[in-house]
Amino acid sequence: MNGMLPDAMVAVLIIPVVSAAILALIPNYRVSSRLNVLASLLTLSAALLLFARRPEPGQFLFIDDLNIVFVALNTFVGFTTSLFSATYISHELETGKLTPAYLRFYHAMYQVMMFGMNLALVSNNLGLMWVAVELATLSTVLMVGIYRTHEALEAAWKYFILGSVGIALALFGTILVYMAARPVIGEGLEAMVWTTVIQHAGSFDPALLNVAFIFLLLGYGTKVGLAPLHAWLPDAHAEGPTPISAVLSGLLLNVALYAVLRFKILLSASPQAIAPGPLMIVMGLISLIFAAFMLYRRRDIKRLFAYSSIEHMGIIAFAFGMGGPLANFAGLLHMTMHSLTKSAIFFAVGHVAQVKGTQKIADIRGLTASHPVLGWGLVIGVIAIAGMPPLGIFMSEFLVVSSAFARHPLLALPLVTGLLVAFGALLLRLSGVAFGEPCGSLAPVKASYVPMFAHLAMVFAAGIYLPAPLVTWFQHVARLLG
Amino acid sequence: MIGLQFDLAHLLAGGLVLLSFMMLYQDRLYALLNVFAFHSVVLALSVAWQAYIQDAAHLYVTAAIALLFKGVIIPVALHRMIVRLGIHREIETVVGVGLTMLAGMALVALSMVVMLRVTPGADALAREDLAFALSVILIGLLVMVTRRNAVGQVVGFMSLENGLVLAATGAKGMPLVVEISVAFSVLIAFIVIGIFLFRIRERFDTVDIGALDQFRGERR
Amino acid sequence: MMTDLIVQGSQMAFVLVLAPFLTGLSRKFRARLLSRQGPAVIQPYRDLLRLLRKDVILAHNASWLFRVAPYLIFAATWVASALVPTFATGLLFSWSADLIAIIALLGSARFFLALAGLDIGTSFGGIGSSREMLIASLAEPAMIMIVFSLALIAGSTQLSTMAGFMLSPAIGLRVSLGLALISLIMVAIAENARIPIDNPSTHLELTMVHEAMVLEYSGRHLAMIELAAALKLQLYISLVICLFVPWGIGHADASLISYVIGAAAYVLKLAIAAFLLALFETAIAKMRVFRVPNFLGAALMLSLLGTLFLFVSRSL
Amino acid sequence: MPPIIALDCVAAFLLVAVLAVVLAKSTRASRIVYGATLLISVVAVSAAGVQLAASPWEMTLPLGLPWIGAHLRVDSLSAFFLAVVNLGGAAASLYALGYGQHEDAPGRVLPFFAAFLAGMNLVVMADDAFTFLLAWEFMSLASWALVVSHQDEPANIRAGYIYLVMASFGTLCLLLAFGLLAGTDGGYAFAAIRASHPATYLAAAVLILALIGTGSKAGLMPLHVWLPLAHPAAPSHVSGLMSGVMTKVAIYGFLRIVFDLLGAPDWWWSVIVLVLGGVTAVLGVLYALMQQDLKRLLAYSTVENVGIIFIGLGLALAFRANNMNLAAALALTAALLHVLNHMLFKNLLFFGAGAVLAATGLRDIEQLGGLIQRMPATSFVFLVGSAAISALPPLNGFVSEWLTFQAVLLSPEIPQWGLKLIIPAVGALLALAAALAGSCFVRAFGIVFLGRPRSSAAAEAREVDRFSIAGMAVLALLCLVTGILPGFFIDHLGPVIQSLVGGQMPRQLSVSWLSIVPIAESRSSYNGLLVFVFIAVSTSLAVFGIHRLASRAVRRSAPWDCGFPNASPTTQYTASSFAQPIRRVFGSTVFRARETVYMPSPGDSSAASFKLRVQDLIWDFLYVPIVRSVGFLADRLNYFQFLTIRRYLSLVFLALVSLLLILAIWS
User: Fold this and answer.
1) D265 secondary structure, DSSP code
2) How many domains does chain B have?
3) Calpha distance D81→D481 (Å, rounded)
4) Handedness of CA C181, C183, C184, C186 (dihedral sign)
């Protein structure tokens, strides 16, 4: 046990790679789905070991207070999602939407994706982080297109093209950062190692950093799904398998956001450079309000919640952009809560779509009557995502809005407007879906509710009571984010 | 010696920008491809030159990749694809050439303004390279935006990526350059194959992206 | 204490006895003005007694409310009018309800009267109640406004105090007082269903309000309601008297003589008021129901104006 | 230690809610749940009563915002509202013991009922912004679930939707207000807020936000639109709670923020509150007069009463701004007493409406009539409620309005001219509202209970079960007690008033004959007890005397009706015809009432027709445009869902270029 402790960080990466290789070889989908769950569980436990004892930062990998949170969240949601997908995917096979061959590919890719995201999080090297994000993106592209339907392929293609452009922009930003770092730190790998870069950030050339940040913001912002770079997100969510939608919303967006945050820290470390805050605030507000209005005309339930992800990413970007211990804390909390809630919602939506055999909102009615557990679960989820107590997102929105209004009243007004508009839209759709005369099939749900309610329970608990260690941790990170 | 180094590098980088401009006003796909091939060759040269003056051996690999993959294989592949798709004599730009050129000018100017802000502390070579690279990237994006069909856009994307490589190699001692260029080649291969796949599956009667996303998520 | 109780009791008896007399008197004056002989002044007493002795004829679907209402109406009105000083102020229970409360008591009476009108489920009852409530809902605010302006002058809503203040030299001649008086009279006319708002002596269904509500009543119930109506008329008149011409009114702890004087003065004023009322009623014609709002609106405006004047003059 | 009990009660309510989820299926669930809530509320009422005079009790739980924790505090104000809330809750539970049996899907009602009570209790106890808003929103959520509990009717779903959107709008306003109060470093605890005195313009902003936030929950015009939709949609005992109690919790919020947290007021604040209150009172009752749906009528009358309460609050603000503490105390007492009174009779009336609904299945009063014969008990208590809400002595509604009038009469001492001129006008509005309320409830009671049945359902109505009647009777009794012994309640309000305006009315119970004397006996006094006794005595005197000395015989016959009685019940005055004169007077301007009568010419055999159109102008001119503009924007932006990839790329491109431009221009 002690022997492997230092390598927990490596394990987080190795386990997915190995299991991906194995999964690619196993024909039987029952075994592979179980194995998938097992692998995710192992990754999760490895990630948790990181809390126990933190390895020294290396040239390529490291763990600090910031990314350990993300890693833990990432692996946890990865695990629950694998649980969900294990029950979900078999149904896809029965309905013939997928063939065993594709299923094998699916499971392998799932682990590759997890690997990519974990790598992006723990990498201590800007270049490596970039490569990892690209890897995660490409793997998700393949997953999105897995159904091979016209719409799926088209969504995948859109995702692919926009994603590649984003990658390119991000790369240029990374190069610029290197250029800025080189005169101070000297040539070679050292100038790309995060831990060293951040130490000398103060003496970097601000002009270069400015340009770099713009490219990085747009590049990784494309992945975050900030408007107007969001175009890929709704379709990718809507057309891919639901577990992937859950992972996209719950994890990939966070990973990209993590990258943006890193560079925000870097920029705010150098005094003369432009303040990254305002840029993020503006993009956040645009995304929030845009997505809020887009919610009204959605007909596909998964696309609806995809747009709500854009909205929440906007809120988070706003919070981090505002900065300060309170807002950063709120941002972190909101991000965590959003991942949990949104993935829970997608679990529920997945069940709904399988039972009713459609994703069209108009064709789903009276869930609380026809499928009480599922229906009320969805209601709780939407209530939570809409920011109502006693669920976690309420707390973060409380902090964001109140502190924003105290500091920049004029910024808070569009924020509040966006929140209200989005709330109206979500509730409108919810009351259509959850209440009224049931329609469609009344067949019971086969898949397990465990992941969904596990997430909802956590969100609920967080809304009432945040454990002290977590709080101190978040506060520490918030201070770190400046 | 420094002077010569500088001048040659400068020349090659400037050449790249020039070629990007030429791409802007090509309305025939063939011509576009040819210009692009030339673009890649020049890139390969400049990378090689950088490899020589930085005496960084691994950059030669990048140069080779640029030369072979983007200078030869991809253009040829696309060439044949165009023939097979029978779209070789399509004239397809969105806005008029003149306007595009003006936009290109503006972009170059913009990138200059932005980049020359950089304190001369960073060596001049890097600054020049970066300025040129930035303009190549922006023009590449402009090409992508002003082209209707997928091949044109892919070419635009690749020229953009050339700009990236130029920047990467211009950055002295930048690690992972080779890996990155490889990764990008893979990416481009994906794209090309993607187009090709769509063609073969007979899902889309043309690779015009306008048709490709006729569905666009939700019907109105 | 005991004497106080007696005085209070005599006040209640006094108003009760005097109310039909007032009605009879005004009828007599009216007849005279129309150069008719007219019934005797004590005719109302005779009517009441006869009604009391007659059987009650109830509609089949009359509810308990219909049977209880007359007594409640009578009681509320009686209590209200007993609380208005007639021959003396500051009686034992005079402070148990101030002017606002008295108006509200009349309101309760009206509430039950309107309900009684709806109880049988005839169309006439409905007409009556609906129009009555319309009139009330316009007259009450006007009345409250009058109370405001008077209370602001006298610094009290307590009738005894107000009367005392009116007697005191502190009171000069004021615009608001005049306005208040006018609108009070208008309200009184409306509330008592007199011409031009309503005509107490017709059963012409298009015009009637009060009579339409009590159409189904007979016998002792009708007697109660008639008596209540008489009491109400008398209440308003004695209100005008004690607020605007309180001269001669005695005070609680005064001697028996002053009471007698007060009573005499009161009866005299009552007679004059009856004459004026008759004069007024013979002078003008009944107006359409939907002109009533304008009439009462005018009253409301006048009273509000009076109040505002006061506020202004107060702060000058 | 009573306050602990109050806290335990919240916990107990939540426990019951969970329990209700568990045994929602069982048939005896509703009996168990309502019994439990009844028990808990009674305990809570007694605890609150004890706490009313005691010194504030505080406690901090390690919940909610981590670095602040959940502060709970029960001072006299909270205690008073705890009493109101739980009294209403107890009555509702008692009533629901019977009424709840009619529920066809109890699983959708029981858990949220208990949760709703818990939420309201928690709001009143909260002592920091986060806990307050959490409880506030939880309350809205639970009540929303109750509104949509009869989910098969689309109208209910719509009502719930509008309700929750308005609620969260209000919550966001409160959130902004608290954000201002708490300041940048986030001192969310009320204690910290009290300590910090915001700048005047900030305070004004907070006042406006608080007015919007709490007003939207209380039903203040023009934020009332959800109320007449949502309150009737819920099961009747819940409607009673929402109208009678939840609006009061909103009033509590206003009191807590404006009177307690915000510090000394500015005089012009009161102008806003007074005008809004006056307008709300009159418009509310006018709308109530036009309604056909009994429960909606009651909901609108709730709007009216909220207006009356806000008039009292506005007066208190005006006096307090001029340091006239006694006057402020009088006005505030009036307002708080009306809070209690309205809770009593509005619950009673909604329960009555529920009883009618249970007995006939009808809410449309045009279909009802003659119920006094079939349901004597219900009709009696409903009559008491109607008399009380019409402000008739000797019942309780009159006392609070009388006190408000007394407060209005103190206004000439105020120096500001604006107030000098506005307060009398508001007084006139108040009087108008009171008078109109009278005719409104004559109409309601008369059409529903009197006359002849207008439908077979009404003709076959059955008296409701004894639990329901008990629930209503208790409230009716309380209405009477509050009416004849107001001094007792006023004295118990003393500490509350003291804590809010630093002054209180003179002790009333010491006054002889138990009458109430706001300032001085020479100035004004009222004695509900004596008035009651007088009326009772003289009534019985008259009855006794007449039955003894004169005749007592009764003969039954057909109604006379001017000689031509008509057998058909349709010839009775209908509700709309009853309201017609008032509609003529106010309607044409206030709500665009349009009557179209079609009378076929002689010989034409087609049926004559009468159409009446009444529209809510506030809805048309305030809300419809908002909805339209949102829809418009949504449509416009929706194009972004349908662009080609190239266009999306150009978006990215434009974003990049514009940012670079900014960078080029910047510095």
Assistant:
1) P
2) 1
3) 19
4) positive
D361 touches chain C (CB under 8 A): no
The pTM for the full model equals: 0.90
In a domain, residue D545? The reply is: no
Residue B220 lies in a domain: no
Higher pLDDT, A39 or D105: A39
**What are the two backbone dihedrals, phi and then psi, of residue D540, each rounded to the nearest 5 degrees?**
-65, -35
**B111 occurs within a structural domain:** yes
Structural domain span for residue C77 = 2-315
State residue A68's pLDDT score: 87
* Residues D257, D277 within the same domain: no
Burial of B124: CB neighbours in 10 Å, binned 0-12, 13-18, 19+: exposed
Residue of D nearest to B147 (CA): D646
| Domain limits, chain A | 276-482
Q: Residue D569: its chain C contacts at CB < 8 A? A: 121
| Helical residues (DSSP H) of A95-149, grouped into ranges | 100-122, 126-144
Residues from chain B that touch A188, judged by Cβ atoms under 8 A, are 173, 175
C-alpha closest to that of D464 among D368, D354, D384, D387: D354
CA–CA gap between residue B179 and residue B187 (Å, rounded)? 12
**Domain assignment of residue D158, given as a range:** 1-263
D353 and D382 in a single domain? The answer is yes
Q: Could you identify the residue written with the tokens 């179209």?
A: D596
Looking at residue C48, its amino acid is L
Does residue A385 contact residue A456 with C-beta atoms inside 8 Å? no
Distance (Å) from the alpha carbon of D30 to chain A's nearest alpha carbon: 19
Domain boundary among D482, D506, D522: D482
Query: Looking at residues A145-153, what average pLDDT do you find?
Result: 81
Distance from CA of A187 to the nearest CA of B (A): 5
In a domain, residue B84? The reply is yes
pLDDT in tens, B29-67: 888 888 999 999 999 998 888 888 888 788 888 888 888
Chains touching chain B through at least 3 C-beta pairs below 8 angstroms are A, D
Residue D427 located in a structural domain: yes
Structural domain includes residue B61: yes
The whole-angstrom distance between D373's CA and the closest CA on chain B is 60
State the total domains in chain D: 3
Last residue of a domain, one of D482, D515, D531: D482
List pLDDT tens digits, range A309-358: 999 999 999 999 988 888 899 999 999 999 999 999 999 998 888 888 88
Please list every residue in chain A whose beta carbon sits closer than 8 Å to the beta carbon of residue D157.
431-432, 435-436
Chain D residue whose CA is closest to B103: D657
Number of domains in chain C: 1
Residue D523 lies inside a defined structural domain of this protein: no
Contacts of D176 in chain A (CB under 8 A): 401-402, 405, 412, 416
Note whether D620 and D319 are within 8 A (CB): no
Q: In this structure, are D246 and D338 located in the same domain?
A: no
Residues of chain C predicted below pLDDT 50: none
- Res D480: pLDDT: 92
* pLDDT-based confidence at residue B122 (cuts at 50, 70, 90): low
Question: Which residue, chain included where needed, has tokens 């209790």?
Answer: D121
Domain identity same for D234 and D277: no
pLDDT at position D648, please?
86
Residue D585: inside a domain, yes or no? no
CA distance A366 to chain D (A): 8
CA distance B2 to chain D (A): 31
CA distances from D457 to C177, D361, D370 (A): 56, 8, 11
Nearest-CA residue of chain A relative to B56?
A: A188
Do D239 and D312 sit in the same domain of this protein? no
Kindly state whether residues D76 and D184 are assigned to the same domain.
yes
Is D661 in Cβ contact with B209 (below 8 Å)? no
A290 contact residues in D (CB cutoff 8 A) = 637, 640
Copy the structure tokens of residue C13. 């008896």
Q: Does B119 touch chain D (CB under 8 A)?
A: no
